[in-house]
UniProtKB/TrEMBL annotation:
Region described as Disordered: spans on this chain: 83-112
Entry-linked Pfam families: DUF4096
Protein name: Insertion element IS402-like domain-containing protein
Protein origin, superkingdom: Bacteria
Length: 112
């Protein structure tokens, strides 16, 4: 056999987890996880093949069956933002058929 020996899968996966956890660039990945390009290539292949999505689904299903997940979600305006180029008028120079809608505040549940 010629060439370099194959990097162990455990090192590759640990490198992916480290990159995701820290947010560093791929090129700054420590050599202890193997060559950064190898880790990136494996990450891309796994992502395109849906490996991460399937793993997340299985982990969530197991945790939900055990009662470890509380499915309460909250979205904050500081998290969901409009694209900088979005505009209320629609297309450039055009108009939209939308009318301004006023949303009335809901009744205070303590007053009811």
């Amino acid at each position: 056999m010629t060439g370099r020996p194959r990097v162990k899968d455990r090192k590759i996966i640990k490198g992916m987890a480290y990159k995701i956890r820290t947010g560093i660039s791929w090129r700054d990945l420590s050599p202890r996880y193997g060559p950064w390009k190898t880790v990136y290539t494996s990450f891309r292949r796994y992502a395109l093949a849906g490996v991460f999505a399937r793993a997340l689904q299985q982990i969530q299903a197991q945790a939900d069956a055990a009662g470890d997940i509380e499915w309460l979600l909250q979205i904050d305006s500081t998290v969901v933002r409009a694209h900088p180029h979005s505009a209320a008028t629609g297309r450039k120079g055009g108009t939209t058929d939308r009318t301004n809608r006023t949303i009335a505040p809901s009744a205070d549940p303590e007053e009811a």
